[in-house]
Write a structure and sequence with these properties.
The chain is an alpha/beta fold. Helix content is 41%, strand content 19%. A hairpin with a 4-residue loop joins strand 8 and strand 9.
Length: 394
């Protein structure tokens, strides 16, 4: 991998970069569409190429369970398996330690509002004991498959073995994603464990054609975030992810403090964050890459992304609306179909309705990032950010 910064905004820390991988070039800031099971839900890889996608991210945990890394390697790796000619990234499987464990127990996601955060759960002190499908140990993550209940132990070494077999261009060390409700002491222990896992991942990584990213953790605690950033950056990874959980209003400040510590010349990836205002605030602080299931999940639930905000196609006012989803969008769905027709398809449970909305949403994200890059090059990013956030928060 080779990464270079080609343009910087004069008023903010936003920047445009070019990331070269063995299977394609990625222009940053960039959005990585999520293909959890080696498939974008509702779209194929040919459509993704037509839309303009340059990179896709797949999920190590799910692919190790089904169909298995050995089978994918036998077929020729993820690129051939899913017939994708662009860049590919895989996560480490560490996020499932949270989502199947504490996230399931306390019913929280990566981001929690400050009111919930202030009411700390009593379970975080024994997080490794009080989980449903996953348990954290020094060795790794022990979990029961959500498919058949079989027991697995995902260690840093095993995560590297799986990702080496999958063959993505960019891969991640195994980490622990802590809950936004986890207390300071548990989070402090967790970042120390994540650092040890990062070192073990480095030692176990065997494929020099793949670029290994480190991950910064630390939850909602800015001091622990800084400590994690310093320690992980000292290990000399070629790229860095900012993972874990956040309090909604704390995210920009935490991201800014982490970015200031990580090596400027290396790409930074804010993992699992996909809301438009969060993305813009992170780009402003120097983040280069984002991934999230938001565009596809929204599409499957009738939510449309537009430059003016979200649109719910199930609202009755769209039943007879002759206008396109977004008058300013040039995607094939907006050029060909009316809101009335798409509302009919979605209300009728027709798979094409949800597929068309997904197509539009991913197209929207790719076009948004193209506009972001252009605005940075023209030193107009702040104006773009303010205009979009004003519309999305009205």
């Amino acid at each position: 991998m080779k990464f270079s910064v080609v343009s910087k905004d004069k008023k903010t820390n936003a920047r445009v970069g070019v990331l070269e991988t063995p299977n394609g070039v990625l222009n940053t800031p960039a959005f990585l569409s999520v293909a959890t099971l080696a498939s974008i839900k509702g779209l194929d890889t040919f459509e993704m190429r037509d839309i303009g996608a340059e990179i896709i991210i797949c999920n190590t945990y799910h692919l190790m369970l089904r169909p298995g890394a050995d089978l994918i390697k036998k077929i020729g790796g993820l690129h051939k398996f899913m017939n994708w000619e662009g860049a590919l990234m895989t996560d480490s499987g560490g996020y499932q330690a949270f989502s199947l464990g504490f996230g399931m127990t306390d019913k929280v996601g990566k981001v929690v509002n400050e009111n919930r955060q202030s009411k700390k759960s009593t379970t975080e002190k024994n997080q490794s004991q009080n989980t449903k499908l996953a348990k954290i140990t020094e060795d790794g993550v022990k979990f029961n498959s959500h498919i058949d209940g079989s027991l697995h132990n995902l260690t840093p070494e095993y995560s590297m073995e799986i990702q080496n077999k999958l063959g993505a261009d960019l891969i991640y060390v195994l980490d622990e994603c802590t809950s936004p409700l986890a207390d300071y002491e548990y989070t402090k222990q967790s970042i120390a464990r994540t650092l040890r896992w990062a070192k073990r991942s480095q030692e176990a990584h065997k494929n020099n054609k793949q670029t290994l990213f480190g991950i910064v953790q630390g939850g909602v605690y800015q001091g622990l975030r800084k400590q994690s950033a310093k320690e992980i950056s000292n290990l000399g990874f070629e790229g860095y992810g900012i993972g874990g959980s956040f309090g909604g209003k704390q995210m920009p400040k935490i991201v800014e403090s982490v970015i200031s510590i990580l090596p400027e010349e290396k790409p930074k990836h804010l993992l699992g964050i996909g809301e438009i205002d969060d993305i813009l605030l992170a780009v402003e602080r120097g983040v280069d890459m984002f991934d999230c299931v938001t565009p596809t999940r929204y599409g499957r639930h009738g939510v449309v992304l537009t430059i003016s905000g979200k649109l719910n196609i199930f609202l009755s006012k769209y039943k007879s609306d002759k206008s396109p989803l977004d008058k300013k969008c040039s995607c094939l769905v907006c050029q060909r179909y009316t809101r009335a027709y798409l509302a009919h398809l979605c209300r009728s449970g027709e798979i094409n309705g949800l597929r068309f909305l997904t197509y539009h949403n991913i197209f929207f994200m790719i076009q948004l990032f193209e506009a972001i890059r252009k605005s940075i090059q023209e030193n107009k990013f702040e104006k773009l950010k303010n205009n979009i956030i004003k519309k999305w928060r009205k």
